[in-house]
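Lab meeting prep.
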Amino acid sequence: MATPLRNVHPLFELRGRNYIVTGGGQGIGFAVVRAIAEYGGNIAILDLREQPIEEYNTLACQFGVRTIYLKTDVSNEESLTSSFSQAVEFLGCVHGAFTSAGIVIDKPFIEQTWAEVQRIQDVNVLGTFFATQLVAKQLLKQETPGSIVQVASITAHGVLPKHRMSAYNASKGAVKVLTEALGVELAPHGIRVNSISPGFIDSYQTRVVRDLKSPEDSAIMDTAPPLARIGNFNDLTGAVIYLLSDASAYTVGADIAITGGLHVGRIEM
């Protein structure tokens, strides 16, 4: 007998659920924090910044949710573990996470230093790995299902034009494969792991990279995607809510490329 159809809208609701967001003090991470709050979820933010952006202070009142901000270095075991424990104590339990803490440099391969490359791997790979591990352990302890969304990148699909980001490429390739591996390993426990791969997104990090490039090279961010524009945070948040919610109950080990089409082709101007 076929499964009866259900209303779609309630499947996206996060009301009463609790989420950990790394790198949620600004940028993509904060955009997702705000989206989770809009859908009724409570959030613990773990971020290296001293304070989140100002809009954070309005979320609890605006959306009727609970939030906490914990200054955290996800590449440091003691810092990450301590903040995670505080987050669980505040939230009571967890239902999932969005692991967006990450850093990038645009620099010729032969000029990248040991310290720079190691820092990228420590934050982007180890930070993602162990934040996910902590969430998975908590879900297993609770004996509850959950959803974890990691942040890969278009650079895990191919090399961006006019960009010199080999260390970052390597880190995001690792995250994409980690998503696939954990999707398989954790699925029997009801823990779903998926990822998004943003393309060129208008953010603070992107603007820093733009400033280092010639106007011609910088313009590629706007002209190369088949949609002929750079992306924005709103282009990403819907996919993350889908992956965190019950709407994606049968989605595991998947990566959603949100690139304006750049991961499959580019416009030659």
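Slide two material, second protein:
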Amino acid sequence: MAPGDSKYVRNIEDVSKIIQHTKLEENTLLPVTQALYFADEVKEYKLLELNKELLKKLNDGVTLTFRGVENDKAVLCCDNKTYEVKEAETSNSLLLVPTLKFPSDVTPSTSGETDERILEHKTVLGVYHTYYEVKVCKPKVKKLRIILENSSYRGSEMESALIESGAKLYSTADLLLEIQASEAELHSALRELFAFDLNGKWRVLEFDYHTRVLAYLLNLIDAQSWNIDDIPVNEVIEILTDLVPPFIIQHIITVYCEPVPSSSDNPKVCLIEDRVCRTLGEELLRSHSKYELNEFLKIWQEAVPPGLTTKLAQLDGLVYSLNSSNRLEIHFCPEYLLPEDINDRMHYLFGLKDKWTFDEIKPFIQIFTTPRMDENGILTKYARASKVNGVKYFSSRHGK
């Protein structure tokens, strides 16, 4: 190396000497040798390890996007899945060499016609002991309900006041900037919230307005003596148009009814029992968050249209039962208002009551299930089981 040179550049003779020192036979080695040199300036890169599925999507032209706003933990989204991103450490040194060749890259076309050794110089752009790995996770869509309820639809006469208030309306593109979910998962969450597109913006109905329009529909069915399994759509829209915009009537019909075969040009629908009962049950619970169970069941059944049957299972994720002063009570407890962190949620649930059966607690922890861990796995990890009179209960791991 000449005086003043910053690095020594290896030559073929150097390579041959090293091969001799290692006591290897040169004819057993691939004919390409790569000499590594560290760059004079190291740029800041982050290393991300992708699984085979994500790598294939990337190679197929699918866009991978990091999503999250300030203070969010970043997630990586493809077209249909969300991945949590975590930093991992390695005791080995990871060298970033963009043009490095692997054995499979060395072919006759790159090694030449002869057996002469080829020396290639490669630049190391960085040395790393950490990298980011990804793991499939549930989309983080709890925020979606809050965003949409801030601009909920309360009737056409309230739209100008909503706009004047400065409430933000969200398109799909806007939501993807805020919600940590893939586009497919976002649309799935929008369907679960019964959201609808109005002039390119996603909206939900304000709950009181929602139940009022549903009441219009149910009262009309009763007044017209229509069978709940044979409701004429065109007549519903025509009669209710003076009270509610037609697109809202159609939306309520879509949410609470399903099509039935009809030979006429007037489509027919039938009520979806579980959905109607759940909303009317929630309406009762919002007005009075605690009931004696038998009293509630009686009031609830009287509130639904004749021909529909109420069942407590229809309120999964909205209520829990509690023995109090020798009577069984039902308490309003919407799952979507509970803590988003699994540890915080379990602490909250066991604060409501000491012991839960599997069927009682399941609706409140389903959101945390993954392909590798179901509700039983979650309870094994975060609760302890016991039996009382042959019934299995789950309680806090740190309880008395």
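Talking points for slide two:
The CA atoms of residues 284 and 299 lie 9 Å apart.
The radius of gyration is 32 Å.
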